[in-house]
């Protein structure tokens, strides 16, 4: 298992659960966890689900990607409640996560990954 892992947060449970199927193609040795939807699996996000995904991830350092709005807010709250080192990225959700997965698999450093993520930043 790689030192860096990925957490995915989406308002839609099926998106959060489906994206790892794509990422595992680029990074089969990466710990991927996801949190999608509310506690009732409706559209929205859950800070509790996000915190559980952070804690369940086997990697010692995480790169976090999210889709929109409140997912970032709940992700920030969960990061504050965790002892893990989590880096939050404001990038295009799928493209950012896929880029990170491919680079983690290739043993790129965090600074190299962040350099590649910079053009994908949502402004």
TrEMBL record:
InterPro entries the UniProt entry points to: DhaM, DhaM_N, PTS_EIIA_man-typ, PTS_EIIA_man-typ_sf
Any matching Pfam family: EIIA-man
Keyword Signal carried by entry: no
Domain of life, source organism: Bacteria
An example Gene Ontology biological process: glycerol catabolic process
SUPFAM superfamilies: PTS system fructose IIA component-like
Keyword terms: Transferase
Entry GO CC: membrane
Enzyme Commission code(s) on record: 2.7.1.121
GO molecular function: phosphoenolpyruvate-glycerone phosphotransferase activity
PTS EIIA type-4 domain residues: 3-123
Catalyzed reaction equations: dihydroxyacetone + phosphoenolpyruvate = dihydroxyacetone phosphate + pyruvate
Subunit structure comment from the entry: Homodimer. The dihydroxyacetone kinase complex is composed of a homodimer of DhaM, a homodimer of DhaK and the subunit DhaL.
Protein function: Component of the dihydroxyacetone kinase complex, which is responsible for the phosphoenolpyruvate (PEP)-dependent phosphorylation of dihydroxyacetone. DhaM serves as the phosphoryl donor. Is phosphorylated by phosphoenolpyruvate in an EI- and HPr-dependent reaction, and a phosphorelay system on histidine residues finally leads to phosphoryl transfer to DhaL and dihydroxyacetone.
The name this protein goes by in its record: phosphoenolpyruvate--glycerone phosphotransferase
Organism per entry: Liquorilactobacillus aquaticus DSM 21051
């Amino acid at each position: 298992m790689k030192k860096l892992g990925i957490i995915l947060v989406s308002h839609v449970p099926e998106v959060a659960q489906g994206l790892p199927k794509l990422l595992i193609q680029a990074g089969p040795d990466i710990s991927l966890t996801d949190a999608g939807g509310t506690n009732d699996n409706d559209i929205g996000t859950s800070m509790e689900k996000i915190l559980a995904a952070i804690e369940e991830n086997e990697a010692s350092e995480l790169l976090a990607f999210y889709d929109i709005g409140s997912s970032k807010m709940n992700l920030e709250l969960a990061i504050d409640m965790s002892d893990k080192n989590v880096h939050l990225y404001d990038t295009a959700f799928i493209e950012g996560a896929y880029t990170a997965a491919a680079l983690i698999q290739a043993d790129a450093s965090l600074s190299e990954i962040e350099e590649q993520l910079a053009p994908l930043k949502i402004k």
